[in-house]
């Protein structure tokens, strides 16, 4: 293999395990990942749909090499979180009780999962409903909400039991690049084509248009009659200036939702490395074939839609994007997300 071919080979595989894999020597990393069959989950690129692995046994078991590599990645993620929590302001821990309102549980697999809206939360809910024997596909929205309420820690009235379960269970959290979350929240809830544009959000969007249009960088658009819904710039100005507390969960920060600094999460999953993270958790929990085939099946193989994120951020001044980064810097640093070069 020529030097040029080796360089290209190492570059392509270098992104597979994100920044954490940089601790391994590059060439040995490439050979190791080939042996472990670690699929490419390069963040911020388009990923082709792949068929789920065929389950031969009652439980899915990954190779020791794969599990060893994933454990090292998890170790780095938890160390990154701990460093950020140590360096951040005193309010980083929140109230210390949010997980008892939000987190799902599965007694069968001794799993506790804190869901973050616009970061695979619906798919997480579907997966854990299935673990608890609920066929969510047959339920309407209200039925699904009622069923999911029964598998949240908030449904447990005995505080001692609740605390014992939380301490004993494998605790997971699934995070996403903060800017991608904002774009997802905006396009889902605040524009007419969004699936979640209705009810409260259908009223909120024109309200944000009215209240924040005077801050638009393009003066000619401050009195525009269209669009009637909030622009992306209106939405970001709202995020930066609102005194609303608690903030709407679809764009609230990670501390408000799951208090990462207050709890020792055993597994930190990421949307941009979801396929390998799902494989790891599936094996770690010893999920049966029945449950492993449905575990995050609607998310595997999807693009992280980085192009869409950049398209929206290109419509606003870099100064506004930088202010937003500083405002949510805590979310970036806790989970090892770097400031995007395209806003610098």
SSE topology:
Elements: H1 3-14, H2 26-36, H3 64-87, H4 99-102, E1 104-106, E2 111-114, H5 121-131, H6 141-149, H7 159-168, E3 170-175, H8 178-189, H9 200-212, H10 232-241, H11 254-258, E4 267-270, H12 274-284, H13 289-292, H14 306-313, H15 318-327, H16 329-334
Helix pairs in contact: 1-2, 8-14, 9-10, 10-15
Helix and strand element order = HHHHEEHHHEHHHHEHHHHH
Question: Strand-residue fraction?
Answer: under 5%
Low-confidence stretches: 2-58
Total of DSSP H or I helical runs spanning 4+ residues:
16
Q: How much helix, percentage-wise, in residues?
A: 40-55%
Question: How would you describe the shape?
Answer: globular
Radius of gyration from CA coordinates: 21 Å
Average pLDDT, all residues = 83
Structural class: mainly alpha
Biggest sheet layout: 4 strands, mixed
Distance between the termini: 38 Å
Strand order of the largest sheet: 1-2-3-4
How many beta-strand segments? Answer: 4
């Amino acid at each position: 293999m020529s030097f040029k071919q080796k360089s290209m080979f190492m570059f392509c595989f270098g992104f597979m395990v994100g920044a954490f894999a940089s601790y391994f020597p590059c060439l040995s990393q490439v050979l190791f990942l080939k042996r472990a069959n670690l699929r490419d989950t390069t963040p911020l690129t388009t990923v082709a749909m792949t068929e789920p692995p065929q389950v031969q046994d009652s439980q899915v078991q990954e190779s020791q090499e794969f599990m060893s590599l994933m454990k090292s990645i998890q170790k780095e993620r938890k160390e990154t979180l701990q460093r950020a929590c140590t360096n951040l302001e005193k309010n980083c821990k929140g109230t210390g009780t949010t997980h008892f309102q939000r987190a799902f549980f599965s007694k069968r697999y001794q799993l506790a999962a804190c869901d973050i809206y616009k970061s695979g939360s619906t798919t997480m809910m579907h997966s854990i409903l299935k673990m608890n024997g609920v066929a969510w596909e047959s339920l309407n929205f209200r039925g699904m909400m009622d069923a999911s309420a029964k598998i949240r820690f908030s449904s447990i009235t005995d505080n001692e039991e609740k605390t014992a379960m939380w301490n004993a269970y494998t605790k997971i959290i699934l995070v996403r690049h903060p800017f991608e979350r904002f774009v997802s929240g905006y396009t889902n809830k605040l524009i007419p084509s969004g699936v979640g544009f209705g009810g409260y959000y259908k009223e909120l969007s024109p309200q944000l248009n009215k209240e924040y249009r005077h801050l638009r960088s393009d003066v000619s658009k401050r009195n525009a009659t269209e669009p009637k819904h909030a622009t992306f710039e209106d939405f970001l100005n709202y995020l930066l200036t609102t005194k609303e507390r608690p903030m709407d969960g679809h764009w609230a920060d990670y501390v408000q939702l799951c208090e990462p600094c207050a709890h020792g999460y055993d597994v930190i999953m990421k949307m941009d490395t979801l396929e390998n993270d799902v494989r790891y958790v599936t094996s770690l929990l010893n999920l049966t074939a029945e449950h492993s085939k449905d575990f995050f099946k609607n998310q595997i193989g999807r693009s992280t839609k980085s192009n869409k994120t950049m398209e929206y951020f290109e419509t606003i001044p870099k100064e506004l994007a930088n202010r937003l980064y500083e405002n949510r810097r805590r979310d970036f640093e806790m989970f090892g997300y770097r400031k995007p070069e395209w806003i610098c």
